[in-house]
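Hi there. Long-time user, first ticket. I'm pasting a complex I've been working with (about 283 residues overall). I'd like to know whether the download I got is complete or cut off, because the file seemed smaller than I expected. Thanks.
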Amino acid sequence: MSAGNILVWIVWIAAAASCLGSALAVVLLRNALFAALALIGNLVSLAVFYLLLSAEFVAAAQVLVYAGAVMVMFLFVIAYVGWDRDIAWTGGPSWQTLGGVLTAVALLAQLLVVIALEATNQLAHAKHVSASFGDPASIGRLFLSNHLLAFEVISIVLLVAAIGGVILGAQSRRRRTGGRR
Amino acid sequence: MLGPGIAWYLGVGSAVFAIGTAGVMLRRNPLIMLLALELMLNGANLVLIAFARGHGSLDGQVFALAVMAVAAAEAVVGLGLVVAMARRKIEIDVDLLSRLRK
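Hi, the file is complete. Here it is re-exported in full:
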């Protein structure tokens, strides 16, 4: 193993530990504010994975758009609603908790089995990629040529979601000021 | 490719997805359900980018960006619902939202 290889392994193990740890923290913490902060840690450690997979532009977009913009929106709403409400687990080992955990474990088990079966065949040989793999220019070119329709549909989805957000907020304000039915 | 192979990245992505699934099913606070939903989308994103690297094709990365945009849209609508619940003085608990209208 070369020195570079060992270095990448060390970075990978650190990123994997912080990724899985913060994912568990999101699910297990009672406080919604801390859960949101743990999700920011998860997003940043996933950006490290993206860098290791030579997806530089997606890593930058992840940190800017996700860990930046979307999570700030989450934190604003958590601050508005209040994070000290005591609503955490469904309460003890009920059938609901048991079913949720069993479903997640079964899902993980079958995914890992499928990956392990293919790990030595198809997944073992990653293709060599050029230095420009994953840079903004090539991704932009692909977005505006092969995936132009998807690009436009995404913009419509975002527009509709923004309008929907405004309508949801406006309706509840009207209901509050102008008499309840 | 230096470091671990593609299968390791797929394993971590699957684990994040499974943890997110458990969160969506176990938690009753819709804010934390939305956070767990973001976990699921990000696990899928990691798998997409790992496959893009494995096949040497950029299409997976383009689709990961599309997933990111859809996640932002989903967060806007979900958080709008939570704010509407808070404004109408409904307790923030999804079990109380079992019907669309009362």
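A couple of notes from our side: Chain B touches chain A through 74 residues (CB under 8 Å). Chain B has one domain: 6-94.
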